């Protein structure tokens, strides 16, 4: 039996703050400006769960890089798809918890850091983004800027490395539907759970939600929960109505080859790599940084706490919160430039929510 564990960071000695970490905000923004100028609009951005903390979504890892909730046991991919009564129970557990946990993720709004990153894309300063996040907040931020003033750079791209919670699909025929439509079907089949979900939303007493939209429930009998099968299969009179899975990569599941290849191509065709809000604990993200390093490309990381890439050749690191540095840099950009794309960025530059998860205190976590 293969043992699958949740990625975490290997132990590493504590290092003194780097010279970049100790720079004043103004000088740190100047360093970022020089880094992006050298990139000549071909810098790729890589983000993780730390970017979404200020939108009220908890990160996976804390300030020391360890898994922030070691007692949490997510459903693994092979458990979700297992064709057995045991697999059915795993699916009931997953979808019951996700049914309660999805609304806070769905309703979350971009925070200032999302807006700053969208501005970098919109202005063509770093048009391509690879994100490990499944919360749909980067697309929301970019569409906000693109809906006012000039459209975002035609070369802008958001690659969701680990998928998105906003869609689901069936395993056999790959029929895709929106998560909202599937959520509505769950509500219809589970009136008692639907009542509990609405009550939690009304009172604000929602259970603790993880970045993947799962929540923690204890002492619950999941046998009463009904999991909808693929309605598109049913409508097409398929002989087998199949299991539905969210469009996210589960622990123990491999990234689709097309996504993997596109992520590698983005790095290969880039001039440099800017990393924001991640510890790079998952290999799917770390290998992109490793590739950039092997290709001799400049890499700048603005993130708090240890990371898997610390000490990697060619990597510069600011161990600090990224948002204020990005914002200060963009203030100078919009001050010295003009045009409809600049006007759109000016309108939204320092907007965004600030809603940190109640469980998080002190230094922010990264993912």
Describe the model.
With 367 residues, this protein is α/β, with parallel strands linked by helices. It has two domains: 18-57 and 110-162 and 254-367, Rossmann fold, CATH 3.40.50.1220; 71-107 and 165-248. The chain has helices at 25-39, 77-81, 85-107, 112-122, 137-146, 179-189, 191-203, 231-235, 257-268, 283-294, 322-335, 340-348, and strands at 43-47, 128-131, 157-160, 163-170, 176-178, 244-248, 272-276, 299-302, 315-318. Helix 5 links the parallel strand 2 (128-131) and strand 3 (157-160). The longest helix has 23 residues, at 85-107. The chain starts with 24 loop residues before the first helix and ends in a 19-residue tail after the last helix. Mean pLDDT is 86; it is low at 64-68 and 360-365.
Q: In what order do the strands lie side by side in the largest sheet?
A: 3-2-1-7-8-9
* Portion of residues within helices: 25-40%
CATH topology of the largest domain: Rossmann fold
The number of domains is 2
- General shape: globular
Estimate the strand proportion. Answer: 5-15%
Q: What is the terminal separation in angstroms? A: 28 Å
CATH architecture of the largest domain: 3-Layer(aba) Sandwich
Quick gist of this model?
With 367 residues, the chain is of the alpha/beta class.
Short key terms for the protein model shown above:
367 residues; Rossmann fold; 6-stranded parallel β-sheet; 3-stranded antiparallel β-sheet; 12 helices; globular
């Amino acid at each position: 039996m293969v043992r699958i564990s949740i990625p975490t960071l290997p132990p590493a000695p504590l290092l003194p703050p780097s010279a970049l970490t100790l720079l004043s905000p103004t000088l740190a923004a100047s360093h970022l400006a020089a880094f992006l100028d050298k990139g000549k609009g071909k810098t790729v951005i890589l983000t993780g769960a730390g970017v979404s903390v200020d939108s009220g979504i908890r990160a996976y890892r804390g300030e020391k890089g360890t898994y922030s909730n070691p007692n949490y046991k997510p459903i693994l991919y092979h458990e979700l798809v297992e064709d057995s009564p045991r697999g059915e129970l795993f699916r009931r557990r997953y979808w019951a918890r996700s049914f309660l946990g999805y609304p806070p993720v769905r309703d979350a709004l971009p925070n200032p850091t999302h807006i700053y990153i969208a501005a970098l894309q919109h202005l063509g300063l770093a048009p391509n983004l690879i994100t490990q996040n499944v919360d749909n907040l980067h697309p929301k931020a970019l569409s906000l800027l693109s809906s006012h003033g000039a459209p975002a750079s035609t070369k802008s791209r958001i690659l969701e490395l680990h998928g998105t919670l906003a869609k689901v699909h069936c395993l056999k025929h790959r029929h895709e539907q929106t998560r909202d439509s599937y959520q509505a079907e769950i509500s219809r089949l589970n009136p008692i759970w639907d009542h509990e979900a609405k009550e939690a939303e009304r009172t604000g007493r929602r259970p603790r939600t993880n970045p993947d939209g799962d929540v923690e429930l204890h002492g619950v009998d999941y046998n009463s929960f009904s999991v909808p099968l693929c309605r598109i299969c049913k409508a097409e009179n398929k002989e087998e109505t199949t299991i539905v899975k969210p469009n996210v990569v589960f622990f123990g599941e491999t990234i689709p080859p097309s996504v993997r290849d596109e992520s590698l191509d983005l790095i290969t065709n880039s001039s440099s790599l800017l990393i924001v809000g991640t510890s790079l604990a998952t290999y799917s993200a770390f290998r992109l940084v490793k590739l950039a390093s092997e290709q001799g490309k400049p890499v700048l990381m603005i993130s708090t706490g240890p990371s898997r890439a610390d000490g990697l050749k060619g990597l510069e690191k600011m161990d600090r919160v990224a948002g204020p540095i990005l914002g200060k840099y963009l203030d100078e950009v919009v001050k010295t430039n003009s045009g409809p794309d600049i006007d759109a960025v000016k309108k939204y530059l320092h907007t965004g929510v600030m809603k940190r998860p109640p469980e998080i205190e002190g230094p922010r976590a990264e993912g």
